[in-house]
Amino acid sequence: MLKAVVLGVNGQDGSYVAEALLRRGYVVVGAGRQPVSRYVGNSESFRYQQLDLENSADLSALLHTERPDSVFHAAAIHGAAGFSYEPVFAAMASVNVISVHTILEFARKHKPDLRVVYANSSKIFPGPLTGVISETTPYAASCLYSIGKIAALELIRHYRSHHRIAAANLLLFNHESRRRPANFFVPTLARGLAGALADSRHTMTVKTLDFYADWSSAEELMDIAVDISERAPADDFVLASGVTWHGREAVRQLFAQHGLDYSRHVSETLPPQNMGDSFNVCLDHLERSIGRRPSCDLAAIVDDLMATN
Fold it and tell me: CA–CA separation, 238 vs 136, rounded Å?
């Protein structure tokens, strides 16, 4: 029976990865900083391990004890738009980068057939994004968070090319679920729409609707992450829906689907902006490699979020 370690199992991505693995018959050890598992219950196939990824010795000990067939690194110090990473840079470097090196060194020295999947980020592509975005799009740092993600990307590529470690970078665009922190845009939007349906006088305020975004289902993307680990574990993939929205048009359509005029319920603190050209995420490499691409659309994601409000 295959065994997987999931780091960051108490977060959105890690919990969905763990559940996808359990559905496929894996034994899963979920690790998180908190004292108990938040979403996945202990069972014959799942065990929770409290672990602080700032302590690389503890991570190494866990890997030596469990000797898993695969490791999914879904832990990160990450915030919503506008988050300041300067005060937490040392911790972020430990969690987002140094822990990746610990895993890769364990594979190099002790388990060369280990499969590693790392939840990287589209933030490595500097904005504003335009044109077609794929695995070959040039990357460049734009903030401390992206600096860490680029370092992890290059670590994985180095160990892949020099030591033949089967490790994958998942270059994740916006992905949403009911487990997403409430201060992110889509959960905020879902609450506002639910409020407007309940009370015609309800209003919400956002900074701006003038932006482009590709939103997909976190649960679906993490199931695809398991496919990648099983079918193409030594490669990099952009993961997105492949559908790009202008924020204002997305909100307009979502409210209109419920018979509402968004302009009566949503106000912005910033004046309108010209965002220029849009972008589109190319999923051809993903589809060629695993025969699959995401199918869940934004309306379904928002409906699911509204059902929890």
Answer: 10
Looking at residue 211, the DSSP 8-state letter turns out to be -
pTM of this structure: 0.95
Residues with Cβ within 8 Å of 146's Cβ and at least 6 positions away in sequence, in order, are: 121, 123, 124, 126, 139
**Helices 12-23, 218-231: crossing angle, 10 deg rounding:** 60
Average pLDDT, the chain: 96
CB count within 10 Å of CB 47 equals 15
Q: At what angle do helices 298-308 and 247-256 cross, to 10 degrees?
A: 60
Average pLDDT over every residue of 29-52 = 97
* C-alpha span between 29 and 44 (Å, rounded): 11
According to the model, what pLDDT value does residue 108 have? 98
Q: What does the pLDDT average to over 190-204?
A: 97
β-pairing verdict for 245-246 and 212-213: antiparallel
CA 259 from centroid of its chain's CA atoms: 32
